[in-house]
Amino acid sequence: MSAKMYVKSVKDKMNITPMSKEDLDNMILVLNLKIEQYPELKQLLMDTQDKFIYEDVSNRPYGNSIFWGGYWKGNEFIGENHLGKLWMEIRNNL
C-alpha cells in the first residue's frame, strides 16, 4: 500500500498511460514476478481451479477501479476486471 501511495504522488512522471495496453503488459510482468518470488502463491492460485477471480471494488465503483476490478450488482458483474483476467490467464498457463 505504501508503494501505491508513493506512485500516486509522482504520477506526473509516469511514462505509461494508465489503463493502456502497456499498463496491462506491466501488470502481467508484475504478477509473474510475484509468482516467482512467492512459490506458495502458485499453489493458492491453482487451488482456485476454474473460479472467477476479481478485485472487489464495490466501495469505489468508478474510474480505474472498474478497469482493474469490478463488483456485483444483483446477478450482474460491473467492471472490466483486467486484474482478475490476468490472474486467470496465469492460472490457465500453470
Helix content: 40-55%
Shape: globular
**Which residue ranges are poorly predicted, with pLDDT under 50 across at least 5 consecutive positions?**
none
Please count the helical segments: 5
End-to-end separation: 28 Å
- Overall pLDDT: 94
The strand count comes to 2
CA-atom Rg in angstroms: 14 Å
What does it look like?
It is globular, with a radius of gyration of 14 Å. The mean pLDDT is 94. A hairpin with a 2-residue loop joins strand 1 (71-73) and strand 2. With 94 residues, the chain is mainly alpha-helical. The chain is 52% helix and 6% strand. The longest helix is centred in the N-terminal third of the chain and has 17 residues, at 21-37. Helix 2 crosses helix 3. The chain contains five helices and two strands.
In short:
The protein is 52% helix and 6% strand. It is mainly alpha-helical and 94 residues long.
Secondary structure elements and pairings:
Elements: H1 2-9, H2 21-37, H3 39-47, H4 65-68, E1 71-73, E2 76-78, H5 82-92
Antiparallel strand pairs: 1-2
